[in-house]
Amino acid sequence: MRRSATRQGLAKTLGRPLWFVLAAAFLFEAWLWDAVGGLLKRLAAAIAFESLKRTLIRAINALPAPLVLLVFLIPVALIEPFKIAGLWLIAHHHFVYGIGAFVAAKVFGVGVAAFLFDATRSKLLSMQWFAQFYAWVMRIRTRAHEIIEPYKQRVREALAPFRRRLGELLAAAANGGLRRKFALLRSRARRLRDLT
Q1: Torsion over CA: 139, 145, 148, 154 (sign)
Q2: Which residues contact 124 (CB under 8 A, 6 or more apart)?
Q3: Backbone angles phi, psi at 63, to 5 degrees
Q4: Contact call for residues 69 and 110 (beta carbons, < 8 A)
Q5: Beta-carbon count within 10 A of 77 CB
Q6: What is the pLDDT of residue 29?
Q7: Mean pLDDT per 10-residue interval, the chain, length 196 residues
Q8: Are 97 and 89 in contact (CB under 8 A)?
Q9: C-alpha pair distances (Å), 3 with each of 8, 17, 47, 48, 130
Q10: For residue 121, how many other CB atoms are within 10 A of its CB?
Q11: ∠ CA 112-26-110 to the nearest 5 degrees?
């Protein structure tokens, strides 16, 4: 009886940090998805190959919904060489480069997957099981925000005095101190220019 109570207490004690770490990892992945996916979307919008983009979208729209899932093998095929290169670099004692290759593969893979998901969203959501899965992931994302938000609020409150002080220092510098230093530097630069 005593052991089970101890195990439950330990599970509760370890459970909160574990859920925090899982929620933070999930939200980091979601942030990466949003940020890098948005960047690739803007990059694709900037590319002048409109006919290529229209052809790609037409090809995706022509596929049946289950086959659209195969489009997501593209990021896997693109990032695997980076991961293999990362392993090779780590095996040859180039840890920084190896980790860099893994990070690049992660960022690039998530970005391409996010871009492809935007292009295929309506087709994928037409499958009932995928729509349910997507709704489940969105509920997890909401729950992760609920878990992390109190910690974010505490950090904001702890940093508030430092932010206020930094703002005061910047305002003071902008009101006179910084201007005087720039004026002094300009006058010295003029004198040096006049000497040459």
Answers
A1: negative
A2: 65, 68, 69, 117, 130, 134
A3: -75, 145
A4: no
A5: 8
A6: 73
A7: 54 64 72 70 66 75 82 80 88 90 82 78 86 88 84 84 77 65 72 66
A8: yes
A9: 9, 22, 64, 67, 43
A10: 13
A11: 10
Phi, psi of 94 (to 5 degrees): -105, 70
Could you tell me how many residues make up the chain? Answer: 196
Q: For residues 102 and 100, what is the distance between their CA atoms, to the nearest angstrom? A: 5
The 3 state secondary structure assigned to 159-188 is HHHHHHHHHHHHHHHHHHHHHHHHHHHHHH
Residue 124 near residue 130 (C-beta atoms within 8 A):
yes
The residues spanned by each domain of the chain are 1-126, 128-196
CB distance 16 to 148 below 8 Å: no
Q: Tell which residue, 64, 100, 72, has the closest CA to residue 85.
A: 100
pLDDT at 132: 92
- Residue 193 is predicted with a pLDDT of 66
Of 165, 71, 64, 164, the closest CA to residue 115 belongs to 71
* DSSP code of residue 174: I
Q: Using alpha carbons only, give the angle 42, 44, 49 rounded to the nearest 5 degrees.
A: 140
In eight-state DSSP terms, residue 142 is H
